[in-house]
Amino acid sequence: MSAYLDNxxxxxxxxxVRDLMFQVMAKPHxxxxxxxxxxxxxxxxxxxxxxxxxxxVGAKAGEVFxxxxxxxxxxxxxxxxxxxxxxxxxxxxxxxxxxxxxxxPCRSLKAAGFEVDYVAPDRFGVVSAESVLNAVRDDTILVSxxxxxxxIGSIQPVQEIAAGLGKKGPLLHCDxxxxxxxxxxxxxxxxxxxxxxxxxxxxxLGAAALVVRSKRGILPRxxxxxxxxxxxxxxxxxxxxxxxxxGLAMELASANLEGESSKIxxxxxxxxxxxxxxxxxxxxxxxxxxxxxxIVSMTVQGVSGETLIAALGRAGVAxxxxxxxxxxxxxPAQPSYALLAIGLTRQQARSTLRFGLGRFTTLDDxxxxxxxxxxxxxxxx
Length: 381
Known about the structure:
This protein has helices spanning about 15-25, 35-55, 70-85, 100-110, 130-135, 160-165, 240-280, 305-315, 335-340, 345-350, 365-380; strands spanning about 5, 65, 90-95, 115-120, 140-145, 170-175, 195, 210, 285, 295-300, 315-320, 350-355. It is α/β, with parallel strands linked by helices. Helix 3 (about 70-85) packs parallel to helix 4 (about 100-110).
């Protein structure tokens, strides 16, 4: 038995993306060497990818800056804007359920003398636009709100927040990593900085992007310096095969969105139904209509989360008890701060499993997970 239901931590590489990357890797391409055809070809490849990523979010190609990971992009957005605009103010607004790659830079900024306000979500994992806007002050320089929470799947009112901030207010950053390929991205039209990640959209690890809209005339201060690549915004040789794969993956994500969403919605409903039937009293976090179907966060009853995730793992079924970017990966599972923020008890949070459905998920995968759950209950009885 084998079933991959952890597409939120990382997705398999799409075969079309893999084939393109193999073609690119067949020759050496340093895109920053312009005086021979190999380097020139590398530069051409990353510019094609830049255009593909830009098109997915309605941006200009020149507004896309490559980074090696979404964590790097989020750090660049948060710390780069904070230090670059600190003469205008030293106040930041974010939410209590952001990814650690936003929360940790905010923690570092607090230690450096900045003030940070964290807006709490409701019990469904959604922050209100009104609460975010009410936290904004005259000295607020940045608001950072994710598009889709990576633990619950809750969709945040980013478009409403952007409209409330207007064109002269603080800059708005959105970690859209879990939105790409799951929901239409037109809501990002008025967002100033956007983080995207390759390995969440069936591309390779090692490529991500920070989109910085040029209309505000502001760039983040570099937090990594070196050879001046990416207009000095992020130093280091661009990973050409990974970026090429990322570009195609973003293009495919946009093209396949409607068909994939319909299929995944049906699979998510079947998984939720099966768990509730096997474990009465279990419930799904978030609320239909304000969450993506790709993330099925289930708080289970009658069996501990650690026991269930271990049983699934032994059977070859991949799921998780929270974010792959939280903790060390060893020792007992720590309760997710996002789940605690929506009002779950520590015990409930520790008994919550996250299933990540994706492009290649099948009904057989769902049935494999449900078989493990039912078999575990049979053995325990």
